[in-house]
Amino acid sequence: MRKTILFVAAGLLIGSAAASQMPAPEVLIQGRYLAKKTYTARPLPGFAETRALLPSPRFDDHPGYVDMYWKAWELAFRNFHEPAPGTGFVSQFIDAAFNENIFAWDTCFMTLFCNTAHPLVPGIASLDNFYARQYEDGEICREIVRKTGVDFKAWINPGKPFYSTWGFNIDSPPPPVTITYVGREAPKVPSRVTLDGLDHPLFAWAEMISFRTTGDKDRLRLVYEPLVRFHRALREYLRQGNGLYMTDWASMDNSPRNPYLTGGGCAIDTSCEMVLVAREMASMALLIGRPDEARAFESEADSLTARINGLMWDPEKKFYYDLTVDGKRAPIKTIAGFWALVSGAATGERAAALAAELDNPQTFGRLHPVPTCAADQPLYNPKGEYWRGSVWAPTTTMVIRGLEKSGRAGKARSIACRDLDLTYQVFQKTGTVWENYAPDAVEPGNQAQKDFVGWSGISPILYLFEYGLGLKPDAVRNELNWDIQARGALGCERYRFNGHVADLVAEPSAEGTGWVLSVRSDGEFTLKAKAAGVEKAFSVRKGANRFVLG
Fold it and tell me: Which residues pair with 543 in a beta bridge?
């Protein structure tokens, strides 16, 4: 067992007077790899005063989508917070509004729609608070108490060999399960958190998505070292002897896959996420001038990809599966398999097979895409029942990004627009946004929180911009791509990317054979526009611009 533990963050000892009198405490330094050490107080943004500064979309074909957009932002603003004193947090942040804790998985996905309003709202900097609570060995707990800055107590390891606290049944938790390492030695130093507290290593992915919108290279320099240390910790504790990565339930609380992961099983999502993160870390390293480290990350990703395809791909069922601790493929088909697309692990025929499953009405081709459990699997619920079929914004976004990465942008946009429309239909009925949605009905999931923004802001905000309006930024190239697929006028006032603020309007030409694009910008960028098979690149200058497409 460890000694009594005190926490140090930003140079401040946190603990009671009684604790300070205990003999020989072990002092943990947290946040040492993040250069940002303190929070500079400033007014928390409010919706009423910020609305006039936020991007303001126009979509004449679907004006109701714009109403839902503003409702999503109104809900999001309710969940902005300042760090509480003594927490060690260093940035204002957005919270999932799920309970009194902050969650890494939730926050990574919430940054995706917050990027559209950067820097007006707490978005990507919300992740700073996780880096500020990082242990010296690189571990970051996925769930931290908002008011104290201390890890959620169930995930704190008191010094035991690596274990899972709750396993897969959180409603009736079994005794803790010790993790069995097969084909490698167990870590000699006990982890700081349990297996439950180390899942979905997506920080680097979220950071690079934000960079491609904001162009903020200084942030990459700030977060690179914390991310390197976190990556090392995951390799130390989550990597099985076969080179793949473990989880116990990977935030898919009641999924039928979970029993097969017990005790050291390898997860297709966690393993593919480690490929994805290694690729993004390589990109980050190149951007900040560390080419040798970039090559090392790419080599790691290549090796792990080969192991995933060799062990987790079923050539007969043409899908990716988890592995049990004894190396057998689990029989359950879930949305976790699609992480192979976004990570780039699935290529060629494998990627085509995954894409085909999204059209299969017996599995994932349901009314509301994309269910988190295939419809032909045990325990699938057409009403959702959380991770037994519900449609969740994070996993749907993962599928969409994966389709884009595999060269299927049209299919990605179709799924995103379908989700946007069905989310809007539920919004029309209920007046709000929900935690998840039923796969086989136009209604919330049968276990879902209302007013959830939260990650569910992705569809009303991000999907509206990128797939409804067709606006996709590329800050690396200082380009804005506009794929117009509409009948009426569309655009956005105060659209934000790469430090620019621009007013954009596309209107059908009087002749009805093309589009007139009006752009007013505070800086220069390239606008790549296309509509009805016509593509043109325009040089946007500071001030007013007018272009004709078609």
Answer: 521
